[in-house]
């Protein structure tokens, strides 16, 4: 077993060595055409220990997490979960090809830590500030507000202390 | 009166508050009372699972724990929240060490996985029943043709018994048929709309949602029917995302029932793609 296969198997808790290259994950993937390395090939490269090749793949960040690959895998490998694990490892090692998704996810969780619920407008504005694209999609946002589909103020849980505790206990582990 | 605990999730309080109103209206018509979980919090959505293995169960478990204490089964209309809550609920039942770990995090609350988590389609099918749906019709929807659009996560949870077929669900088709509207068969029932990419990569959502809209138009649908607030929003935003081609309304499953029961869609003003043309096809049944 290669070290890389072991690492990703342990972290994802998925039996990647069971993959026998049936192509079903790639065949069902709605974004396969945009991937530099197809999903079934990613699985194979993990088995072969091609660490650098896999972690620097831009395709990892194209995944929509729609789970089609996972439910179709004849060997019950949660392929989407493996992709998620690869994103984690890639991001930890700073080889992230695209940090837009996680940049947003981090702001999303920050919003939950503060309010207990997602403050949509605040999170989106923070993201836009970070990406310096403040005026992009402004029209879309304004129309949504006019249609009552974007709150101006955050809605919060009452027991904010409990939410903070949950986040802190996880951090302390 | 049948009572269910209700987990709204963030969307049903903001971007899709008219969906919440529609669900409450329709279910109360069938004598189902929804008791919103006291002080619920976000389920963590796709962000928590991407970033932390324990947080992604702790956030849903906090809500499940509150619901368990109230003692009713839980309805969770947003498919994304439904997926997160159901996975955690199942894990609490089957993975004892994870349950202990999660309960340490959410103390003084504690979650055992003792209640059922259901989505809106399940609740209508199981607790209303197709006969009562058909029996409650006051308006004729027979000149409306729709495509059922389930979205990608509703039945696609690995290792959890899905409530309907993983690849070709039919339960929402059956509900729509029971209202008298025509349902078209198509292969895009579970095609991904682009989901959360709308903010980080708008073009991805535009591509995927546009593909779904194109197919619905090509086979002659008058509307797309979905149970998912994110799918509804992404498809509804198409004209604002830069789609120049024709669009048809994207309505919630409960809005189909609203039309059959009262002939109107109360939240019609919240729709970005207008639903007026659809409503002109609804005719009062003379009793």
Instruction: Give the name of the CATH superfamily of the largest domain in chain A.
Output: Alpha-helical ferredoxin
* Residue share in helix of chain A: 55-70%
The tally of strands of chain B reads 10
CATH architectural arrangement of the largest domain in chain B: 3-Layer(aba) Sandwich
Radius of gyration of chain A: 19 Å
* Largest interface summary: A-B, 52 and 58 residues
CATH architecture of the largest domain in chain A: Orthogonal Bundle
Content-based structural category of chain B: alpha/beta
Remind me, CATH topology of the largest domain in chain A? Answer: Fumarate Reductase Iron-sulfur Protein, Chain B, domain 2
Report the mean per-residue pLDDT of chain A as an integer.
90
Query: Class by helix and strand content of chain A?
Result: mainly alpha
Whole-number tally of structural domains of chain A: 2
Radius of gyration of chain B: 19 Å
Poorly predicted ranges of chain B (pLDDT <50, ≥5 residues)? Answer: none
Instruction: Give the helices and strands of chain B as they follow along the chain.
Output: EHEHHEHHEHHEEHEHHEHHEHHE
What does the main sheet of chain B amount to? 4 strands, parallel
Query: Judging from the principal axes of the Cα atoms, what is the shape of chain B?
Result: globular
Uncertain runs of chain A: none
Question: How many structural units, i.e. domains of chain B?
Answer: 2
């Amino acid at each position: 077993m290669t070290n890389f296969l072991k690492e990703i198997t342990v972290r994802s808790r998925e039996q990647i060595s069971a993959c026998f290259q049936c192509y079903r994950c790639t065949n069902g993937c709605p974004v396969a055409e945009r991937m530099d390395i197809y999903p079934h090939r990613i699985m194979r490269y993990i088995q072969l220990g091609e660490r650098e090749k896999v972690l620097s793949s831009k395709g990892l960040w194209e995944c929509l997490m729609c789970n089609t690959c996972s439910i179709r895998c004849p060997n019950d490998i949660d392929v989407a979960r493996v992709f998620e694990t690869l994103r984690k490892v890639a991001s930890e090692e700073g080889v992230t090809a695209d940090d837009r998704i996680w940049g947003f996810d981090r702001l999303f969780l920050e919003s939950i830590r503060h309010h207990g619920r997602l403050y949509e407008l605040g999170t989106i504005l923070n993201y836009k500030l970070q990406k310096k694209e403040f005026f992009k999609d402004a029209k879309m946002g304004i129309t949504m507000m006019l249609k009552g589909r974007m709150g101006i103020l955050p809605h919060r849980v009452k027991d904010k202390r409990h939410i903070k505790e949950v986040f802190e206990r996880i951090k302390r582990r | 009166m049948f009572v269910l605990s209700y987990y709204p999730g963030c969307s049903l309080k903001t971007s899709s508050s008219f969906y919440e109103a529609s669900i409450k209206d329709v279910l109360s018509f069938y004598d189902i009372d929804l008791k919103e979980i006291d002080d619920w919090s976000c389920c963590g959505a796709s962000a928590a699972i991407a970033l932390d293995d324990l947080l992604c169960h702790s956030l849903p478990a906090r809500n499940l724990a509150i619901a368990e204490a109230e003692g009713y089964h839980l309805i969770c209309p947003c498919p994304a929240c439904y997926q997160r809550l159901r996975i955690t609920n199942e894990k609490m039942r089957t993975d004892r060490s994870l349950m202990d770990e999660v309960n340490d995090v959410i103390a003084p609350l504690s979650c055992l996985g003792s209640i059922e988590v259901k989505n809106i389609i399940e609740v209508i099918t199981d607790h209303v029943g197709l006969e009562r749906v058909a029996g409650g019709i006051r308006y004729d929807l027979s000149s409306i043709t729709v495509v059922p659009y389930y979205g990608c996560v509703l039945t696609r949870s690995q290792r959890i018994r899905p409530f309907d077929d993983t690849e070709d669900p039919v339960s929402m088709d059956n509900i729509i048929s029971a209202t008298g509207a025509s349902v078209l068969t198509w292969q895009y029932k579970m095609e991904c709309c682009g989901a959360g990419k709308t903010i980080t990569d708008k073009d991805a959502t535009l591509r995927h949602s546009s593909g779904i809209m194109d197919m619905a138009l090509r086979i002659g649908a008058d509307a797309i029917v979905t149970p998912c607030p994110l799918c509804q929003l992404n498809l509804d935003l198409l004209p604002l995302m830069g789609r120049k081609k024709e669009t048809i309304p994207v309505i919630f499953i409960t809005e189909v029932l609203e039309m059959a029961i009262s002939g109107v869609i109360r939240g019609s003003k919240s729709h970005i793609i207008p639903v007026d043309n659809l409503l002109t096809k609804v005719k009062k049944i003379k009793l």
